[in-house]
Specification:
Order of helices and strands: EHEEHEH
Strand content: 25-35%
InterPro entries: DUF3303
Shape: elongated
CATH topology: Alpha-Beta Plaits
Pfam families: DUF3303
Helix content: 25-40%
Organism: Actinomadura namibiensis
Strand order of the largest sheet: 2-3-1-4
CATH class: Alpha Beta
Oligomer: single chain
CATH superfamily: Dimeric alpha+beta barrel
Distance between the termini: 29 Å
Number of domains: 1
Protein name: DUF3303 domain-containing protein
Radius of gyration: 16 Å
Structural class: alpha+beta
């Protein structure tokens, strides 16, 4: 399952704190980079999103929870809609 994990820095959190937390979690082997399918920042900083792939919601929580004091998460399960396949499906449903 693919999860859309939008984040925004908590009020008062500084970029240095977030970077330090990412490095600390990485050095402890807790970020599960093999599960991160994409990591994006929004222009201007202080917000972005990650795409995380796991079938276990508890595993997702374990990845995100250590950041909750520096970022706010908004998490949604998502699935891909292959464009060409969807166009064909829509044509059949018309």
């Amino acid at each position: 399952m693919l999860w859309y994990c939008r984040f925004r820095y908590q009020p008062g959190a500084r970029a240095e704190e977030v970077r330090s937390r990412v490095l600390d979690q990485h050095d402890k082997g807790l970020n599960s980079p093999e599960k991160i399918r994409g990591w994006y920042n929004l222009a201007g900083g202080g917000a972005g999103f990650m795409l995380v792939e796991t079938d276990d919601p508890q595993e997702l929580t374990d990845i995100l929870e250590p950041y909750m004091d520096v970022v706010n998460w908004d998490v949604h399960a998502i699935y891909e809609l292959p464009y060409d396949q969807m166009i064909e499906k829509f044509r059949k449903q018309r």
